[in-house]
Design brief:
Layout (H helix, E strand, L loop, with lengths): L1 E10 L8 E11 L4 E5 L6 H8 L7 E6 L2 E2 L6 H8 L2 E5 L10 H11 L4 H14 L15 H13 L5 E5 L7 H17 L3 E5 L3 H7 L2 E6 L2 E7 H5 L7 H4 L11 E7 L3 H11 L2 E13 L2 E12 L1 H14 L2 E4 L3
Parallel strand pairs: 3-8, 3-9, 6-7, 7-8
Antiparallel strand pairs: 1-2, 1-4, 4-5, 9-10, 11-13, 11-14, 12-13
Helix pairs in contact: 3-4, 3-5, 4-5, 5-6
GO molecular function: ATP binding; ATP hydrolysis activity
Keywords: Amino-acid transport, ATP-binding, Cell membrane, Membrane, Nucleotide-binding, Translocase, Transport
InterPro entries: AAA+_ATPase, ABC_transporter-like_ATP-bd, ABC_transporter-like_CS, ACT-like_dom_sf, MetN_ABC_transporter-like, NIL_domain, P-loop_NTPase
Amino acid sequence: MITLDTVGKTFPATRRQAAVTALEDVSLTVERGQVMGVVGPSGSGKSTLARIVNLLERPTTGTVTVDGLDLTALTSARALNDARRGIGMIFQQFNLLDSRTALANVELPLELAGVGRAERRARAGELLERVGLGDKLGSHPSQLSGGQRQRVAIARALAPRPKVLLCDEATSALDPVSTASVLALVRTLTDELDLTTLLITHEMDVVKRVCDHVTLLEHGRVVDSGALGDVVARPESPLATRLLPHPGPPSDDRAVEVVVGGDSPDTVLTDLIRRYDVHVTVLGGAVETLGGQRFGRLQLRVDGAPDEVRGALDHLAAHQRPTTETAA
């Protein structure tokens, strides 16, 4: 649905500043229905990437394809505007018009597209009801909380029925309770409306709560990317321990470290003990919910007859995302 192929962006030199390369050789793909989180420190190029996806910034090199359409090949303002109607965007600071009610703010993109008053009003009312603000149609932004304003912004982004939703630090200005509810809403809308969502954030907790896939940017380059479950299973991944903390050095010379996911770690260990005549001791570890699934990075000691121990370890290797083995 979204494909960036070897995208680069260099801002030209000015009198006060040398040329700046914000992105370099960035390639990534977000499939239909996925929520992709893009994380990285300040200045890593995250917001530039978001603006390039809908060509608010034109890349210096590379191509941007959304829903099969090469946006970088579009040259007329009309063609770009038509393409952008398929890409909704929400921002950190909401960007609502204070002079307009919640209903009128959501109507705005439809009004600009020439949609008739009755149709756009019905659509805006339906969306505000969907985001939980059916009783706030006549409220102005100053009368709403931060979380409510972001819900209005989400409804506005969805008004033209886009296929893609871009979220640029959309929860950074919110308190923890509002952050959780807005992220849950984004996940629900992505699933129910078959959206493809690109979520720009510097907070790893945001990725853990709502994303299926994650990409790490550093100095304008992709340094790691993948499904959350695959990322945490790679010991060399710079994202792995940020998503799922490492339990530390083995406390036993017979320790084995595994990453288990898809089921509760307790269920995995119970199944292991039922299948094999072994005793399993948990020496340390961490358990996190990532993208709605439970994952654990555990240090285990497996004791028993050599054949049973080997069978148990092979079972983990085949089914439960092993990372490293320090002893058998």
